[in-house]
Amino acid sequence: MELNTFNEGLLEFLGQSPTPWHAVGNMAGMLDAAGFQRLDEGDPWSLAPGQGYYVVRNGSALVAFHTGRRSPAEAGWRMMGAHTDSPCLRVKPNPEIRRNGCLQLGVEVYGGALLNPWFDRDLSMAGRVTYEDDQGRRRDTLVDFRRPVAVIPSLAIHLDRDANSSRSINNQQHLPPVTLLTAEHPDTDFEQLLAQQLRADQPGINLRRILEHEICLYDTQAPARVGMAGEFITSARLDNLLSCWLGVQALLASDGAQPALAVFNDHEEVGSMTAEGAQGPLLESVLQRWVGGEDRHRALARSMMMSVDNAHAIHPNYPEYYDDAHGPVMNEGPVIKINRNQRYASSTRTSGLFRHLSGELGVPCQTFVVRSDMGCGSTIGPLTAAGIGISTLDVGVPQLAMHSIREMAGSRDAHSLYRVLRRYFELDSLWD
């Protein structure tokens, strides 16, 4: 896939995936269109050679794989992993706050969100709803308001003259968005608003009452190419839907000859210790059902995982926060992430393989190491490496404004990483 087509698809995917459930639904649609067969975890599996399959858990995590034409015990698995969730604000179960003439919504901060950029944005809402139909059956569905329906207004600087130097945010007090004027809508509650939107989106829905909801706020500003020469991409959720997009595209574009798998976990931003997270049993369950017993251990010894999660590009306004020799630059290629205390799982073996593939394709490659006097973040890489015992690489696209409501990356880097990942999926042998 050439660069412009790749980026057009990426921007469309980002704009249509405001929540993990929407992202997984969109990835499942791509896999369906490519002829992959959806598996149900509750059914018996019968996997055929040379076929594509995928499985979804909780609607927010997905594993897709080619069985290949060789046994994993002999060929090993070529795996990549990313995560579907991003830091955001999520609506509380009983969210209504009626205060000073406004209907506001109580929200909870999900993950390590950078909060200041959420103020004064045109926000919408999307997520998953569980409801009861007229026959008393429970159903799940997705909802997306798509239009601006909420704002978190800043306090005017006239009332806080120190706002630019010392304003802090109290999550409970300052983050509830304004959605309605109560004088005009005195009896409206949040479930009514959800029901109205569901009936507008799905005119034939058989909705008696809403049982539960998982709703995220999101910025309605569309993803875009920006810069004087269009050299950047800006969007919400680049961390880590960008990696989900390139992972699916690389798997679909590969020749399918080798056993290859892509796992897209949920809940990475809150620790991954869930049924859908990287510390949960999802990946292990799929591998065990694919190949069991002694052959599974043989397969793992011949396998590798690429944990694909965005890296910190050097910020031109804050260079003092980076190691002088390890500050990645946007559009200078994918970034191998290294931490000797194993916050990243890269080793000389896995990093060397990636550099070898990059060199073959003429793709530049960079390295990130955090300053020695600062703490280091982590990814699903070390969790997966320890969980199933697999050689792992941490790699990603360099970006700015990580965990902001709008993030920034180079317009060439994702495509470069896609090319390397596709080649990796097609390798005859991982370890010569």
Describe the structure.
Its EC number is 3.4.11.-. Keywords: Aminopeptidase, Hydrolase, Metal-binding, Metalloprotease, Protease, Zinc. One of its GO terms (molecular function) is aminopeptidase activity. The protein has helices at residues 3-15, 20-33, 72-75, 163-166, 171-174, 190-201, 238-253, 282-290, 293-301, 348-361, 380-388, 413-425; strands at residues 37-39, 52-57, 61-66, 78-83, 88-99, 102-110, 123-132, 138-144, 178-181, 209-219, 224-226, 232-235, 260-265, 304-308, 311-312, 335-337, 366-368, 391-396, 398-400, 407-410. The protein is α/β, with parallel strands linked by helices and 432 residues long. It folds into 2 domains: 3-86 and 236-425, Zn peptidases (Aminopeptidase, 3-Layer(aba) Sandwich), CATH 3.40.630; 88-219, Aminopeptidase i, Domain 2 (Roll). The longest helix has 16 residues, at 238-253. The radius of gyration is 22 Å and the shape is globular. The relative contact order is 0.18.
Please specify the SSE layout and strand pairing.
Blueprint (H helix, E strand, L loop, with lengths): L2 H13 L4 H14 L3 E3 L12 E6 L3 E6 L5 H4 L2 E6 L4 E12 L2 E9 L12 E10 L5 E7 L18 H4 L4 H4 L3 E4 L8 H12 L7 E11 L4 E3 L5 E4 L2 H16 L6 E6 L16 H9 L2 H9 L2 E5 L2 E2 L22 E3 L10 H14 L4 E3 L11 H9 L2 E6 L1 E3 L6 E4 L2 H13 L7
Helix pairs in contact: 1-7, 2-7, 7-12, 10-12
CATH architecture of the largest domain, by name, is 3-Layer(aba) Sandwich
Ranges with pLDDT <50 over ≥5 residues? none
Widest sheet: strand order?
A: 1-2-3-13-4-14-18-16-17
Helix content: 25-40%
**Biggest beta sheet attributes:** 9 strands, mixed
Q: What is the 3D form?
A: globular
Number of H/I helices: 12
Total strand segments: 20
Chain-averaged pLDDT: 96
Rounded radius of gyration (Å): 22 Å
What distance lies between the first and last C-alpha atoms, to the nearest angstrom? 29 Å
CATH class of the largest domain: Alpha Beta
Q: In total, how many domains does the architecture comprise?
A: 2
Q: What class would the helix/strand composition place it in?
A: alpha/beta
- CATH superfamily grouping of the largest domain: Zn peptidases
Give the amount of beta strand, in percent.
25-35%
CATH topology (fold) name of the largest domain: Aminopeptidase
